[in-house]
Amino acid sequence: MATIAEVSKKYDISQATLRYYEKIGLIPPVPRSKSGIRDYDEKSCGWIELMKCMRSAGIQIEALIEYVKLFQEGEHTAKARKDILVDQRDILEDKIKRMQESLDKLNYKIDRYDTVIIPKMEKRR
Amino acid sequence: MATIAEVSKKYDISQATLRYYEKIGLIPPVPRSKSGIRDYDEKSCGWIELMKCMRSAGIQIEALIEYVKLFQEGEHTAKARKDILVDQRDILEDKIKRMQESLDKLNYKIDRYDTVIIPKMEKRR
DNA sequence: TTATCAGTTAGAGTATACTCTAAGTCAAGA
DNA sequence: TCTTGACTTAGAGTATACTCTAACTGATAA
To answer: pTM of this prediction?
Structure first.
């Protein structure tokens, strides 16, 4: 049981973003005190942790919202939920592959600056 | 020497995006025919290829524009250019690491659907 | 010569994902 | 009681990266 301030600090996500995530359904509704103030429990924190991880990997909010929606509809949506995860896994694998290619290209270019371009420039002085 | 239509097709980048990239300086100015029509040469195509790769890895346009700007200022900017590449390489490495973590988490969850959640649900029928 | 078609521009519009603002509520300490 | 400070909401604003629109030009085929 934690306040929005505590959760915001713990996960380094702004309070505005935490409210936004709840509003759009990226996480299920957070329990509230009698006066309407958010009181995050274990489950809510688990969702936040998951979404922080997924979002930091660039997984689209849209797909994650669908996942949460299905989750709240109950057990019988398990297969559909798994399908979403598989789709996103494939997309992510692809992205990582492309990024690895760019990383290789960057490293190649950096090496050329070190071994060719900068030495040549220095010699000319 | 190629038209914008050919280059657009070759790299699967819309003509609008090619013009946009040139306008904001993500690629150096493309040679023009006497009537002002773009006539892409080897160099221009090389820049497009590079930027397609960098952008598909999510490298910020801002940093790439700075790189192109320095490149056009001449040889003496080599060190500054290399610094940009190194910064972006470090950012990219970090991103790949985070994405790999998310990928692992996704695969773990998918496995749980296959081995626990879905079988449990099927048994209950 | 006229229409068609690919090209040109500036600038407005869109999608995604926040981020901020204004106006208000509620509980606790001075 | 008053004020302070953390919380609430709806809705407007922002950043990034395109994407589209309108209006125009210039070369070529009928």
So the answer is: 0.92
Which residues of B fall within a CB distance of 8 Å from A100? Answer: 96
d(CA A22, CA B124): 32
Residue range A62-125, CATH number: 1.10.1660.10
A30-74 pLDDT per residue, tens: 999 999 999 999 999 999 999 999 999 999 999 999 999 999 999
First to last CA, chain A: 66
Q: Does A9 touch chain B (CB under 8 A)?
A: no
Instruction: Give me the CATH topology for the region A1-56.
Output: Multidrug-efflux Transporter Regulator; Chain: A; Domain 2 (1.10.1660)
Provide the residue ranges of all domains of chain A, joining segments of one domain with +: 1-56, 62-125
Q: How far is B90 from chain A (nearest CA, A)?
A: 9
Beta partners for residue B2, in sequence order: B40
